Amino acid sequence: MSSLIKNRQAVADDFTLLRLADGEAAETVALPAGPLLVPLAVWRARKAELQARGAPLGVWLDVGEGPEAIADELAAFAVIGVNFPKFTDGRGYSTARLLRQRHGFEGEIRAIGDVLHDQLFLMARCGFDAFALKDGKNAELALRAFETFREPYQAAVDRAEPLFRRHRRAA
Q1: What does the alpha-carbon distance between residue 70 and residue 4 come to, in Å, rounded to a whole number?
Q2: Does pLDDT of 47 surpass 80?
Q3: What is the domain extent for residue 62?
Q4: What's the pLDDT at 2?
């Protein structure tokens, strides 16, 4: 089990992240036992088999795979992963926000891939609550990223009102 940050704590990861290797097909890839986080292609190809396993299940979305691809099936997932192939690719931020605000997903949204501690605060503001850090990164050190900013200015998933409205109400 690898470690991850979930709900602002370093925890053990019970889920196995399944990635298709070159030449592997979604229809025939071996499915490890236990809680599983599968690519969208595997979900589409083997939905009935995955649901019949009885283990917690998650799906992960790659770049170009928006939340509308699973919007009608959100109740099937304990976790939705959003892949960041490069830390400079920001499309996953929008995916998380859409999952929370447009589609009402209340389960775990996990950032996977090239996830660095510098991104955690903003990812959390967009709706992520779990972060699988890039290999070699220290989860305990990364937790400090949540304390970098105490009072965000903009409205986001985590705070519906901007700072000026919060201050006006307090006055």
Answers
A1: 24
A2: yes
A3: 3-170
A4: 59
164: nearest Cα among 152, 146, 150: 152
Tens of pLDDT, residues 65-92 = 999 999 999 999 999 999 999 877 888 9
What's the CA dihedral at 96, 98, 102, 105 to 10 degrees?
Answer: -20
Interstrand relation of 130-131 and 108-113 (parallel, antiparallel or unpaired): parallel
End-to-end CA distance of the chain: 49
Rounded to whole angstroms, the Cα distance separating 51 from 53 reads 6
Per-residue confidence (pLDDT) for residue 104, from 0 to 100: 96
Extract the tokens encoding 166.
């919060």
Instruction: Classify residue 103 as exposed, middle or buried by CB count within 10 Å of its CB (0-12, 13-18, 19+).
Output: middle
Residue 40 in this model has a pLDDT that exceeds 70: yes
Torsion of CA 125, 119, 137, 38, to 10 degrees: 70
d(CA 52, CA 15): 17
- CATH number at 45 reads 3.20.20
Q: How many domains, the chain?
A: 1
